[in-house]
User: Fold Helix-turn-helix domain from Tepidiphilus thermophilus.
Amino acid sequence: MRRTQLLQEVRKMRFEEAYEGWQSGRLTQEEAARLLGVCDRTFRRYIARYEEEGLEGLVDRRLRQVSHRKAPVDEVMALVERYR
Assistant:
């Protein structure tokens, strides 16, 4: 598992704990946000995304994007053949 994937999984687990604490009334939004290391507004955004998309909604959206600088596979293969 890559480091970024591992960190995303940890983030999901930490959010679940904070969310459950907030839902049960043991934590306020501010306390739950502090546990996650984010501001309370960001915690509210996480709640909205979690309720809409589930845990996968919490994954950093930048990781889903394909690089604009990525070369097509056939072009890469042609360059590899040229240098062999």
